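Structure, all three chains, one model.
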Amino acid sequence: MREKILYVLGIAALLILAWNVNAIARLPEETQQGVTFKIIFFHVPMWAAAVTAACTALLASVGFLITKNFRFDALAVAVTEVGLAFTTVGLVTGSIWGREIWGIWWTWDARLTSALVCWLLYAGYLMLRNAIEEPTQRATFAAVFSIFAFLDVPIVVFSIKWWRTQHPQPVFWNGGSFPPDWTTHFLWNMVAMLLLGTVMVAVRLRQEEAQREIDSLRRMAHAL
Amino acid sequence: MGFFRQVLVIAAKDLRAELRTKEAINASLAFALVILVLFSFAFDPTEDTTREISGGLLWIVYAFAGALVLNRSFARELPNDCLDGLIAAPISGAALFLGKALANFLLVLAVELVSLPVFGIFYNVRWTSQFWELMLVLVLGTWALTVIGTIFSALTVNIRLREVMLPMLTYPILVPALLGAMQLTTGLVAGRPIGPDTVAWLKMLIGFDVVYTAVSLVLVETVLVG
Amino acid sequence: MSAVAVDGVWKFYGDFPALRDVRLEAAAGSCLALIGRNGAGKTTLLRIIAGFSRPGRGQVRIFGNPPRETETRRQIGFIGHGIAVYDELSALENLTLFGRLYGLADPHRSALEWLERTGLERVRNGLVREFSRGMRQRLAVARAFLHRPSVLLLDEPFTALDDRAIAVLQTLLRQALAEGKTVILSTHQLREALELATHVALLNRGQAAFCGPTTPEMVDDPGLIYARYGEG
C-alpha cells in the first residue's frame, strides 16, 4: 500500500515537472539574461528543498538523541542525503548558469560560497556515518554533528554575505523582473520539487530500515 | 571539588603530559614554520601585498598547525584506556571538556605566538602597531578553533580514519570563525584599528565562541557516555 | 537494599541484543564471580554497572542510585582491560591526579599510602611507561582502591597478572570484603575467583543463566557450572 502511494506521488511530481518545463519553455524570455534566467524556476525550489531537508535533519537528530528511536536516525540520514543531492544539482546548475552569463565556471559570490560550505558540512555528516560501524554510536555521533552543522548554516550564510558586501565579486544573478503570471509556474515547481524530495526520502527510509534489519540479523548469526 | 578546580586539574594533567613528551607541540610548531616557508615560494610579495594577505596566511597556518595539537586531545586518552578512568571519575563531562579545551587553547596559542614574529621576519612585515587588538583576535579565534577541535576530537576518538575525519569535520564548521579572524587580522596587521565597519566581525566571532562553547558543554556527556 | 542491583537490563548494538533481561543482585560484603564464555556479555554488563554505557532497557542501581550520579561514582572502583593510568606521568603523579579527581582530602598522602600497599613506593617517581607488566597492573589496582570505594568492579583482573600482582590483589580484595565492601569480578580463571567468591553468576549469550551462592562442589569442580547451566 505504502509503495503504491509512493509511486503515485513520484509520478505526480514528475508529471508536474514535465508540464511545468513545457510551460516555462514557452514563456517569453527575460530581457536581461535571456533564456538562462529561467533556471531560477528550478534553482530556487531546489534550494528551498535543501533548506527544508536541513531543518528536518535537525529535528530528526534532536529527536533521536531524546528518544533513541532509530526511526529518527533513518530519517536524518535519508533527508541529509536527499538534501545533499539537491544541493549538488543546485551548485552544478548554478555553475553552468554562471558560465553562460559571465563566461566563468565559478565565482566566490555569497550564495555559491555559502552553498559550497553547507555542501561540505553535510558531506562531512555522511563521511562521519561511514566511519562508524556500530549503529547506536553512529546514530548518536551523527546526530551530534548534525546539530553542530545546522547551527553553523545561518552563521556561514551571514558571515559570507557580509564578507561579500565588503569585497564584492560578480554576482551570478541579479533577480531581474518577475512578471506576476510567472508566479504560478514558480509555485508549482516548488510543489513538484518538495514532492520529489519527499518521495526520494521515503524510498531511502525504506532502504535504511531494511539495511538495519540485515545488520542485526548478521550480528545474530555471528553470535551463534 | 568545585567545577573550576576540576577544570584546572584536567588542564594541568594534559599540559604536564604534553610538555613531558612535547610530541604534539613540536610537530605543530615545525609544521607552522614549514607552511610559512612554503608560502613564501608560492608568490613573491611586496610588503603591501603581504599585509593584505597576512590574515589569510596566518590563520591557515594556525588552523593546520593547531589540528595537530587538537587531534591528540582525546587521542591521548586511548592508550591504557585512560578515558575510562576519566569518565568513571566523579567529575562532570563539562569539566573534562573544558579542562582539555583550556590545555589545547594554551598549547595552540603558544604555537601561534611563536609563529607571529617568525612571520614578521620571513615576510618583512611589521605587525605590532595594533598589538593588543591583535592579541584579542588571536584569543577569540583560537578559542573557536579549540572548542570545535576539542569536541570533535571527542567525537572522532574511537572511529576509523580519525586523523582524516577530524580536519574534514572541523574546518567547514570553522569557516565563519576563520573568515572573521582573517578579516580582522589583515586589518590589524596593516595598521588599521578595529572600526565600525569591522567590529561586526568581532561580534560574530564572540557569538560563535559563545554558541559553540555552550552547545559543546551540553552535548559532551552524550558523546562520551551515549 | 542490595549494594548492586541489575534489574531487567538489555543492551542493544543496533538491533542486536548483547544483553537480554539480565537480573542479578550483589549484597554488601559479598563477592560475585561473573563467569561465561567469550562474547557472553560479561564486559558489557560490567561496563554498564560501572556507568560507562547506558542500558537500552532496564536499570542498574548501586545502593539505590544510578551509577552515573556523581556521589555514586565516588563509591565505584573499576579495573578494566586497560590499566587507565598515564604512561607519561609517574606512579605518584598518576595517583595524586586521581586522588584530586575523587576529591580526597590529602591526595598526596593517599597516593603514597597505596603505592606502599601495592609495593610500588620505591618506583613512585618512575614513569609508568618504564614499568614492567606486573608493576603496571599493581598501579592499576592502586588506582582502583585509592578512593576506598564501596563497590569494586573488576573485569578479568587475574588475566595476565604476574604472581606478585595476583597476591597483592587477592590480599586487598580479602581486606575489602572483610570491611564489608562489595566486589563483582568477571573471570575466565574460575579457580582463583572461586577462592574469593561468595556468589557466582553465569552469563550465557547475554542472559543470566544462573545466579546463586558458591557451593563446595563448585569450588572442587568449577567446570560443573558450565556443564549444568551453560551451553557448549
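The two ends of chain C are 36 Å apart (CA to CA).
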